[in-house]
Amino acid sequence: MAIRTKRIYEPAAATDGYRVLVDRLWPRGLTKEAAGIDRWLKEVAPSDALRKWFHANMDEWDEFKTRYKAELKDSDALHALRSLVTENEVVTLLFSAKTEDRNQALVLKELLEKS
After folding, report:
1. What are phi and psi of 51, to 5 degrees?
2. Angle at Cα 85 formed by Cα 19 and Cα 69, nearest 5°?
3. Which PANTHER family does this entry report, sorted A to Z (predicted)?
């Protein structure tokens, strides 16, 4: 089992395995064909309120992670994502954020690797 993260705007690669978009909103300027995703699991993304809060408080990464993990606790969407990870050899969590070191895909990867 391998879990990877990648910006949705980067070209799809065979090494991506099963590609899951984990954004609540569809990425701007990208067609579904160009995205090359296997599944859009928007329910696992941060709530609109948390997404907007983090956008205004980008320096509060640890607080974002804490709040996001609280939202995900006992989440059906997180359970669905866990199932996809166990069913596929490689899963790539796709995100549209410009910050590759601070985004929800990294939090999800951390949670999935611990379980």
Report:
1. -60, -45
2. 95
3. CYTOPLASMIC PROTEIN, CYTOPLASMIC PROTEIN-RELATED
The pTM assigned to this predicted structure is 0.94
Q: What is the mean pLDDT of the chain?
A: 95
Write the CA distances from 69 to 16, 60, 65, 89, 91, integer angstroms: 25, 14, 6, 25, 20
In the numeric block, the tokens 């995900």 are attached to 72
| Alpha helices per DSSP H over the chain | 32-35, 48-56, 61-72, 76-87, 104-114
Give 22-74 pLDDT, tens digit per residue. Answer: 999 999 999 999 999 999 999 999 999 999 999 999 999 999 999 999 999 98
